[in-house]
Each structure stands twice: as C-alpha cells, then as structure tokens.
Design a protein that fits this description.
The chain has 13 helices and 6 strands. The longest helix is centred in the last third of the chain and has 17 residues. The protein has a domain of about 80 residues. The chain has a 3-stranded antiparallel beta sheet with strand order 2-1-3, with no helix packed on it. It has about 270 residues and is α+β, with helices and mostly antiparallel strands. The termini are far apart.
Length: about 270
C-alpha cells in the first residue's frame, strides 16, 4: 500500500506547486497495472512556461508509504531469499597465472638482461596501452613465428613480477625485506607501462616501509614519477628533527640534495612550521 506524488520541476529542479498531483493510497503488486494520472499537465501550459529546457521537462516521483506500514515493509525487504547454491569465488587469476607459467599459446618473447620471458600479446595489450601500442602493431608481421622484444633498463626479477601482476592483478609472494626494493623498481615499471593500480600498490607498500634508510631514495622516486601521496608521506616522515638528523648522517641525504634540492627546502619549511 502506497501513494505516489508527482511534481513538475522547474529549471532549478524545484517543484512547481501548481503542478503537483498525489494518488490515493493504493495497492501496488507485481504484475499490477500501476497507478497514476492519465492527464498531468497541459502541453499549452508547458510551451508558454519557462520550465522547458531543450524541449524537455523534468518530473519527480515520490513513493509514500504510511508510517504504520513501514516496519512491515522493511522486514519483508530485508529478508533475502535463501539459496542452497554455493557460488565459488572467482579463480580467473589462477587460470591466467597457469597460462603464464605453462606458456601455451605464447606469441611474444621478452629479452631482459639475458633472460627470456614468454607471454601472450592480446592479454598484455588488454592490460596496458603501452603494451598494446608496442605489440599489436607487429601482429601481422611475425604472427606465425612470434615476436621478440628487448627490454632495457630493467632487472629480470622485476619484469617477472610485472608479468605476474599483468596476468593475475596481484604481486608474487616475497620476503618482507624484499618488498621495499621490489616496490621501488615496480613503481618505475608501472609508470613505464601505464599500470595505475600497480603504481598505487607500490606507493602503498613504500609508505609502509618508510624509514631513515629508504626515505630519501623513496622521496626522489616519488618526485620523479609524480606520486603525490607517496611524496607527502615521505616529507611528513622526514620533517621531524630526529629523522632528519639521522638522514643527514647517511649517503641518502647527499643524494637527495644533489638530485632534488627543492625537496630539501620543502622539508625544512615543513619542519620550521611545526
């Protein structure tokens, strides 16, 4: 049981009081014919009014349920149908991971610092615009024999982790002490191949591993790759006298001064404002 209230709206989205109609309390049911008004507003009125916008009008509809029926309605609505069918979680990542490991149907080989990695061009192209431009342009030539791509300036273990992410949308398992170093390398790879989710995952891991030994290099990395969140976290960490004094006793501070002197000024300004 409910009522329906219809309002003609002006250009500002407010109800036009002279064109409001409300039905009586009526029973709505599945398969019913519904309730409303065969005549709501005259065409002549609309054409002369200022409520038209690009020959269109807006009408709002409120469904009103009386207070004494709301509790009953909520109980019915909140009671989901019970099903005995157990739907397993998605295992697409496992299947694609097996495809990467098994190399069936692989049609591209990457040469990375003397190591070879087999992969599937269409999958890489679906995940990265950079891979798409790099690989699908060569699809006609060498389609039968496969394509070989040389990757410079990247460690083999980093490219292997990159492929794992592309196929499974997750990073491979690694020791905790490896995470910070790998995250730095993968952040550069994510920027290179335009993988925004991997980039954010790496930023998050680097934020969690910030300490005096990593803060300077991480800050430089954040500045080079325009990682605002990571840069802010590094500056917040270093803008304490204790952390800054420890950093100044390391080679990392000299690297920071030479690479990004403006960042040092930003840290000092932050420290002075506290």
């Amino acid at each position: 049981m409910a009522q329906a209230k219809f309002d003609l709206l002006d250009r500002a989205g407010k109800p036009v009081l002279s064109n409001t109609r409300t039905t009586t309390l009526s029973e709505f049911s599945p398969g019913g014919t519904g309730h409303g008004f065969p005549e709501f507003v005259r065409r002549e009125f609309l054409e002369k009014s200022e409520h038209l916008s690009n020959d269109c009008i807006k009408i709002s509809c409120d469904v009103i349920i009386p207070d004494d029926l709301r509790t009953e309605y909520r109980i019915i609505a909140a009671s989901p149908r019970v099903s005995s069918i157990a739907v397993p979680p998605s295992d697409l990542d496992r299947h694609l991971g097996d495809l990467l490991e098994g190399k069936e149907g692989a049609d591209v080989t990457f040469q990375v610092a003397g190591e070879a990695f087999s992969a599937h061009r269409f999958l890489l192209a679906a995940r990265s615009r950079v891979f798409k431009a790099e690989l699908l342009g060569a699809m006609k030539e060498g389609a039968a024999t496969g394509v070989c791509v040389r990757v410079d300036d990247m460690l083999p273990q980093v490219f292997k982790a990159l492929l794992h992410f592309v196929y499974t949308d997750s990073l491979p398992a690694m020791e905790e002490q490896e995470e910070a170093a790998m995250a730095q390398h993968l952040l550069e790879a994510a920027d290179r191949y335009e993988l925004p989710r991997l980039r954010l995952i790496c930023e998050d891991k680097l934020c969690r591993h910030l300490d005096v030994s990593t803060a300077a290099t991480t800050l430089v990395l954040a500045e080079q790759h325009h990682c605002r969140g990571l840069k802010k976290a590094c500056i917040e960490f270093l803008a304490s006298r204790h952390a800054l004094e420890e950093l100044m006793a390391t080679d990392g501070f000299e690297h920071l001064v030479k690479s990004c002197p403006a960042l040092v000024k930003e840290i000092m300004s932050k420290l002075a404002a506290r």
